[in-house]
Design brief:
Layout: E1 19-24, E2 35-39, E3 46-57, E4 63-64, E5 68-73, E6 76-81, E7 84-89, E8 91-105, E9 109-113, E10 116-123, E11 129-138, H1 139-150, H2 157-174, E12 183-184, H3 200-208, E13 212-216, H4 237-241, H5 254-258, H6 281-287
Helix pairs in contact: 1-2, 1-3, 2-3
């Protein structure tokens, strides 16, 4: 997840006096955190869908167990299986009974998805329509598709467990029953690439932390922003977005500076800057 272009935010969990480290989701308010609705970066007008299991087409009750094609025709969707038209209309949902779906994602390529899949024709803002795809999936299955790509299956188990708790907290804060979806599948929120059973370490980390989230001192969910790098110092949410969250404090982060993969830049700054000795244009832009 990348929430800022230049200002990076990280969780300093060990020093955050405002946090109650872990609580279980059911202990929070009555909101349902068991599932999350993810808007996928799918094709805008045509999808070939590999059905690797059994699904029910909600609108007709028909069983779908073989590959189908979904096309946007004007303002309507046309779903076909071979030469048979399975559905024609503005919206339909495939309800998972078993197995999974294989679907192309314009951001992530071919991916596999658990859960239910909703397809809708929505206005594209240009006078036409586009195909919107939303995956309703169990929170823990969703996290497998996040932790494995915000980190990697090769990371230490404890690091993966920390990422699982952080990602679960972030996702839970995004759930909004009044909206048409909760979260997107890119770094605008968290990278989500569907389900991959080969991510055994990630699955173990998610299972080991099942239901655990970060909470503040009053028991509310923590908006758990995180980033790949913070440049050696964390930022406050007040400076970043104008909203102060007390558990995000500005402080030096020596660990980021020790990371050999963190990008660095070396620049020469003049001792005196005045009309006769101005900043180099590239340095000026860098500092801005």
């Amino acid at each position: 997840m990348r929430k800022l272009a230049a200002l990076f935010l990280t969780m300093a969990l060990s020093a955050a006096a405002f946090l109650t480290p872990f609580i279980a989701l059911p202990a929070l308010a009555a909101a349902d955190y068991s599932n999350i609705r993810v808007r996928l970066s799918a094709s805008n007008d045509d999808i070939n869908l590999g059905v690797k299991g059994t699904y029910i087409l909600k609108e007709t009750g028909a069983t779908v167990s073989s590959d189908i094609n979904i096309r946007l025709v004007g303002s309507e969707l046309v779903a076909t299986g071979g030469s048979n038209v399975l559905f024609s209309g503005t919206e339909f949902t495939l309800l998972r009974q078993s197995g999974l779906l294989r679907q192309y994602n314009r951001q992530h390529g071919w991916r596999h998805y658990l859960g239910d899949m909703n397809y809708r024709a929505v206005p594209d803002g240009l006078g036409g329509y586009k195909l919107a795809v939303t995956n309703t999936v169990g929170m823990e299955d969703y996290l497998v598709g996040v932790v494995g790509y915000e980190m990697s299956n090769t990371f230490p188990l404890e690091a993966l467990k920390a990422q699982a708790v952080t990602s679960r907290s972030y996702a839970a804060c995004k759930i909004s029953p009044s909206a048409s979806y909760d979260i997107v599948d890119t770094s605008t929120d968290q990278v989500y690439k569907g389900y991959d059973s080969s991510l055994t370490n990630v699955i173990a980390a998610v299972n080991a932390t099942k239901g655990q989230v970060l909470a503040n001192s009053s028991g509310g969910l923590v908006q758990a922003y995180y980033a790949a790098s913070n440049g050696g110092q964390t930022e406050t949410t007040a400076n970043a977005w104008g909203k102060s969250l007390p558990y995000f404090q500005m402080k030096d982060d020596p660990y980021d500076l020790r990371n050999p993969m963190s990008p660095t830049a070396v620049l020469s700054l003049p001792r005196v800057v005045n009309a006769a000795s101005t900043l180099d244009a590239s340095l000026h832009n860098f500092l801005k």
